[in-house]
Design a protein that fits this description.
The complex is a heterodimer of chains A (92) and B (137). Chain A is mainly α. In chain A, 85% of the residues lie in helices and 0% in strands. Helix content of chain B is 71%, strand content 0%. The chains are: A mainly alpha (92), B mainly alpha (137). Chain B: This is Cation:proton antiporter.
């Protein structure tokens, strides 16, 4: 059962990394700027999930703070980018 | 692999395994939707399931795992869950409003935006340009 659990953790790591690569594809060839912002937001979310899965892999609680910080900065950066795309400046 | 993993009972490791597999499958499906879907307003639905169900499953798996590993209640992943649930609709609304606004602005200048060049996009994007622009002003 523990072998199955460690296999599941490895599968989670691999699929999150694969999802990040797919987001990177959309980020590089997305036709409009809002596509790129959406891909970047998804990339932030996948990075947070990657930190959580690494915490599971190494059985360490430290990765929780990394995931929390990634979630916070991802939200702020996405809001700033959408504001810039809509208005042309971030702080009016 | 860490040695503490062997001490986990089956009734802990089975739901953690299932939740991790569910979460990883949903994250992959969301990223595939982000890449494969043809129009921007369809594409925004892909990351939505990644953010809600994929993140939720992996966070619940992490909670059960660490609670069993340290034999006490470890639920500070609830913080991330609450934050994601609060901010995901805000981010989705902001990105969609940005897309609508930029498409309208590009049409006002007389050129079709690159996302709506492929024919089938006209029914995805139903409202006419002049009416909504004049209603806004």
């Amino acid at each position: 059962m523990t072998a199955l659990l460690s296999l599941a953790i490895d599968i989670t790591l691999l699929s999150v990394i694969l999802a990040m690569l797919l987001c990177m594809i959309r980020l590089l060839l997305g036709p409009t700027a809002q596509d790129r912002v959406l891909a970047l937001d998804t990339l932030w979310m996948c990075a947070m999930l990657l930190a959580l899965a690494l915490g599971l892999r190494f059985a360490s609680i430290i990765y929780f703070e990394a995931a929390m910080l990634i979630a916070l900065t991802g939200f702020v950066s996405t809001v700033a980018l959408t504001k810039f795309l809509m208005r042309g400046e971030v702080i009016e | 692999m860490t040695p503490e993993l062997d001490t986990l009972p089956v009734w802990v490791s089975l739901p953690v395994t299932l939740l991790l597999l569910l979460g990883s499958a949903i994250v992959l499906i969301g990223a595939l939707g982000l890449v494969k879907l043809p129009h921007f307003f369809q594409r925004i639905h892909g990351p939505a399931i990644t953010i809600t169900l994929g993140t939720g499953a992996i966070l619940v798996a992490s909670m059960i795992y660490f609670s069993a590993l340290q034999s006490r209640l470890v639920i500070h992943e609830v913080l991330i869950t609450a934050f994601i649930m609060l901010t995901a609709p805000v981010v989705a609304m902001l990105i969609m409003r940005t897309a609508v606004y930029r498409d309208l602005r590009a049409r006002e200048r007389g050129k079709t935006p690159p996302a709506v060049k492929d024919g089938e996009a006209s029914e995805v994007y139903p409202f006419s340009t002049k009416k909504s622009l004049s209603a806004k002003k």
